[in-house]
Amino acid sequence: MDSVQEVARQVTLGCDTERDKAIALHNYVRDHVKFGFTKYFDKATPEYTLSCGIGHCNPQSQLMVALFRAIGLESYEHFTAIPNDILKGVFPSSTAWMLSLCPQLGHAYVDVKVDGVWYAIDSQVVDTPLLKAAQARLEKENRSLGYGTRVGATNVWDGLSDAFSQFDPGMMIEDHGRVDDLEAYYSTRKYRNQVLGLRFNTVFRLTGAYIPPAINSYIDDLRAAYAE
Fold it and tell me: How far apart are CA 104 and CA 106, in angstroms?
């Protein structure tokens, strides 16, 4: 398995500017890491997310920060609390109870400085097949939010502006700022990803053979329905 540093080096070969390098890394994550969930949930390391090619917003943001830092760009995970509506339609009925008991979610996007300017992005999180499928479903159902994304979202980043495939400033319930010490953050009351007093990190680890595959299969069905 290639390290984060090696992937960053390979992906940015031939890129001349900071902006070109940042966009290349963004596009690599978008195109090689499908939106989904693993048994480690938010505790998935950047290396694990790279190797399995699956991750939701928080591990993908951690990976994105690690890749940016590997090429010398200043970057941070920026955590917020947002409504759980973003994931409605992502969890099958067998696991939807988790979402119903967690009305707010902890969502991370990435702050990155490119050519001296700060940008905020989570546009790498939702892969293109899912984005197209989800937005088609939202339009059909006359909904603005769900299936992991929202109407008006994009997974294209030009390196010159903020870009979001999930987050929107109007969704923010609380701004928790930049977080470097994830373990410390997960132990605070700010961290929303928990149900009945258990963090999702624990729930997904204990049910790793069942819940993550069930959700990922459900998401794959959504992608396939659009492709048909």
Answer: 7
Q: Give, in words, the CATH class of 4-227.
A: alpha beta
Question: Whole-angstrom Cα distance, residue 4 to residue 7?
Answer: 5
Half-sphere exposure of 51 (CA within 13 A, CB side): 9
Q: How far is CA 139 from the centre of its chain?
A: 22
In total, the chain counts a number of residues equal to: 228
**Per-residue pLDDT tens over the stretch 60-80:** 999 999 999 999 999 999 999
Categorise residue 13: left if φ over 0, alpha if ψ from -120 to 50, beta otherwise: beta
Neighbours of 67 (CB within 10 A): 29
Write the burial class of residue 84 (CB in 10 Å: 0-12 exposed, 13-18 middle, 19+ buried). Answer: middle
- For residue range 126-144, what is the model confidence (pLDDT) as tens digits? 999 999 999 999 999 999 9
Q: Where are the domains of the chain?
A: 4-227
> What DSSP state is assigned to residue 163?
B
Q: Which phi and psi (to 5°) does residue 120 adopt?
A: -115, 130
